[in-house]
Design goal:
two-stranded antiparallel ribbon, 30% strand
């Protein structure tokens, strides 16, 4: 894997070819995954910056919205239980 962090929130990553599958792979470095909170299976939006670079953002799908709603409900129940 070839990658380097060029500055805060920016990485330079080289696309690799997987001979076994015939697919091209963008190996995301562990520090990028840790900082973004992305995990295997997340769907990413690709935005062409029109300057030879791309910006990736996590697509907010149903699961993301459900997790957010669940967290809000749990927090509210916890505050109610403790009289807050």
């Amino acid at each position: 894997m070839s990658s380097e962090m060029s500055s805060e929130n920016k990485w330079i990553i080289t696309v690799e070819y997987d001979n076994a599958s015939g697919d091209y792979v963008l190996p995301l470095p562990p520090d990028l995954l840790a900082q973004t909170g992305w995990i295997a299976g997340d769907v990413l939006n690709w935005h062409d910056n029109q300057d030879g670079t791309w910006t990736l953002t996590k697509k907010k799908g149903l699961l993301t919205l459900l997790k957010k709603y669940y967290t809000m409900v749990v927090n509210k129940l916890s505050r109610t239980k403790h009289g807050v």
